[in-house]
Design a protein that fits this description.
Radius of gyration: 24 Å
Structural class: alpha/beta
CATH topology of the largest domain: Aspartate Aminotransferase, domain 2
Shape: globular
Distance between the termini: 34 Å
Largest sheet: 8 strands, mixed
Number of domains: 3
Order of helices and strands: HHHEEEHHEHEHEEHEHEEHEHHHEHEEEH
Strand content: 5-15%
Helix content: 40-55%
Length: about 450
């Protein structure tokens, strides 16, 4: 490929790479030549190649991966959350909440005020803002986080993360993501043209060594999940929170985004990476898991500067969140009966996941339930093979390979993510037997 790229200027070099893509001589994932090697081949200054690659990166044509070099960007659709509407298989891959445990909107709709909202009014609806400010203040104080914050509202957690990154970063900036990683975070970073740097997650959260290594690579933002990490179900421990704060103490201006998506459903206290002196941070809480994915409301507490930058992208009349949706969310969150139902739903998810983990363990596949809407099961066998054999038994599951930041066949995942809270006892027992059998077959054939 080195000999196919031509040009004596940065613009000509970039255009040559585009032509190779158009002709199909380059494809997603292909590596471009090292800067020095291409410069020597073309007889140009190395800075010319650097500039050409930069033009391609800014256009989203290529992605730079530090010491791993520069590769053609992969623009194919990434895996997404949700149920498979066109599958005849029984879906245990969706990671959806139980529809029966989402609140009925009838009472809340009847309470909505008819006062119209006009251009120039505050973006955050007053009543929701007051309720959320108290909620955030209590949790931040208990967790020992920053005392001062500003409140914003976005159209869900993914929208919040995307806006927070875009107001702080430019293409090719490095972002630290958990490994394994939430599918939406992978897609957000990929489409934004940022460079993902993986930080391993263990039973207590992000590892301090992993975060330190990512910061050494120059990441400008960290996206993490303090509770019910997706897909592992891990929650941040008190010990790990202190360790990560110590690592971040030397990097107060790195933007830390905490996606606390499970918040009101969680059986664990909120713990944070963000210490009281950290300067750039945001805590994001969507209502999707307990009021429903179509609610399209997420609340964001952040430092003053981050909030002001975020506000530039949330202008009335263009990108604000409907006050009707905000009032509907507040009407439910201020209802004691709805809050009691949310607590019961959280207990239900925890109990059903724990029951299934016990079934797997009893059948010889030791599993710890973690927290969240799904379980992360170590099958002790290649996940892709296990999922394929589960399909033959009528189940649609999700292989752990889909949650990797980069494709690496030599380190294929052994984990499968399963959503089981919607299954009754008999169905859980049947699935547990099939998972154990499918994993055993996968081990024998691998």
């Amino acid at each position: 490929m080195q000999t196919a790229i031509t040009g004596s200027t940065a613009a000509e070099l970039a255009e040559s790479v585009r032509d190779l893509l158009d002709r199909g001589e380059l494809s997603a994932g292909d590596a471009l030549p090292p800067v020095r090697a291409l410069a020597d081949h073309l007889g140009v200054n190395r800075n010319t190649v650097v500039a050409g690659y930069r033009q391609l990166a800014q256009a989203g044509v290529v992605v730079t991966q530090g010491r791993a070099g520069t590769r053609v960007a992969d623009l194919r659709p990434a895996p997404e959350e949700g149920f498979a509407s066109d599958s005849a298989l029984r879906d245990v891959a969706s990671n959806n909440p139980d529809p029966a445990r989402l609140p009925d909107l009838t009472s809340a709709l009847a309470t909505l005020t008819r006062r119209p909202v006009l251009y120039g009014e505050p973006v955050v609806d007053r009543d929701l803002g007051e309720w959320a400010s108290e909620w955030f203040a209590d949790d931040l104080r208990t967790a020992g986080g920053p005392a001062d914050f500003r409140l914003s509202v976005t159209s869900g957690a993914v929208d919040a993360v995307e806006r927070l990154l875009s107001q702080s970063l430019t293409r090719d900036d490095a972002v630290a993501l958990e490994v394994p990683c939430f599918l939406a975070s992978i897609q957000t970073v990929r489409l934004g043209g940022y460079r993902a740097v993986g930080v391993p997650v263990d039973s207590e959260g992000m590892t301090p060594d992993g975060l330190r290594a990512a910061l050494d690579q120059g990441v400008r933002a960290v996206v993490t999940t303090p509770r019910a990490q997706n897909p592992t179900g891990v929650g941040l421990s008190q010990r790990r929170s202190a360790q990560l704060r110590e690592v971040l103490a030397e990097h107060p201006y790195v933007l830390v985004i905490e996606d606390d998506h499970f918040s009101l459903l969680s059986q664990q206290p909120y713990r944070s990476l963000v210490g009281p002196e950290h300067r750039r941070w945001a805590l994001v809480r969507s209502v999707s898991k307990f009021l429903g994915p179509d609610s399209c409301v997420a609340l964001v507490a952040s430092d003053r500067d981050t909030a002001e930058r975020l506000a530039l992208r949330l202008r009335p009349g263009t990108t604000w969140v409907s006050h009707l949706l905000q009032r509907l969310a507040h009407a439910q969150l201020a209802d004691p009966d709805v809050l009691a139902g949310i607590r019961q739903a959280g207990q239900h998810y925890a109990e059903r996941n724990a029951a299934f983990a016990q079934l797997l363990t009893a059948n010889g596949l030791e599993t710890h339930p973690g927290e969240g809407l799904s379980l992360w099961v170590d099958c002790r066998a290649p996940a892709a093979l296990t999922v394929a054999r589960l399909m033959r038994r009528g189940w649609l599951a999700r292989a752990g390979d889909e949650f990797a930041l980069t494709a690496a066949p030599e380190v294929a995942s052994r984990h499968v993510r399963l959503t089981v809270h919607q299954l009754d006892d008999d169905s859980q027992a049947a699935l547990a037997r099939d998972v154990v059998a499918a994993a055993a077959e996968a081990r024998r054939s691998s």
